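Table S2 (continued). Query chain:
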Amino acid sequence: MSAMSRAIRALGGGAASRRNLSVAASKEAPALAAAGLVAGRKAGRRDPGEDGSRVQWVFLGCPGVGKGTYAGRLSRLLGVPHVATGDLVRDALASQDPLSKQLAEIVNHGKLVSDEIIINLLSKRLEEGEEKGELGFILDGFPRTIRQAEILEGVTDIDLVINLKLREEALLAKCIGRRKCSQCGGNFNVASIDIEGVNGGPRMYMPPLLPPPQCESKLITRADDTEEVVKERLRVYHDLCEPVEDFYRARGKLLEFNLPGGIPESWPKLLQALNIEDPDNKRSAAA
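Corresponding output:
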């Protein structure tokens, strides 16, 4: 088990472990440095163009805002792994593991999965990545509490925290409109979002992402994508996760990014905010 995995797993080790988080983190730090997992500097943001594999970023944002979409795109562009705790939970739900029934009960009622479960899943994923020789990461869905943020800061250097924001009425429509093809696994969205601008600002338009004809009859809806459950998830997020935004804001690591619309409009502006160039975008513009 890697030093980072051991330290993160200590988070879920009960009251005794929680009382000694700072001690555990300080003990793990030398091992992490020796393993090349801690950045050489604490202040400032790394330029991903220098060495994309050294990127260590976190994505924050309400459920359904698009963390997985944009983190996944950046992961492919920069060549670093995208580690999404939501995907880890969904994989566990689909497995035959005894944990899947417990997870289904939690997720289907809009509750947050416990620290212990998330930490065990994340620790396992980090160990698998270490065995493959992965360097750097883009975390999506972790940390989500101050306690998690503190232990993460103690064992590795987070360069940048990208906080995606979207108006709540658009979030609701996006979540309720999500669909998945039960055969090919493709993700789609049937919602057509067209919202008046605020204080004279531009309208927000997000066109639907419709399935191809062969998938239309095979679409399924996630059990937790109902208006009642989505509103509960948003309430829980605001209560528990907004202090994490303040945690990183106070450290000068938080980038607030208001999504202006769908992917075609938002992706180039996000890259501009991150000072990253996408060769595919350039080729499209030149064509």
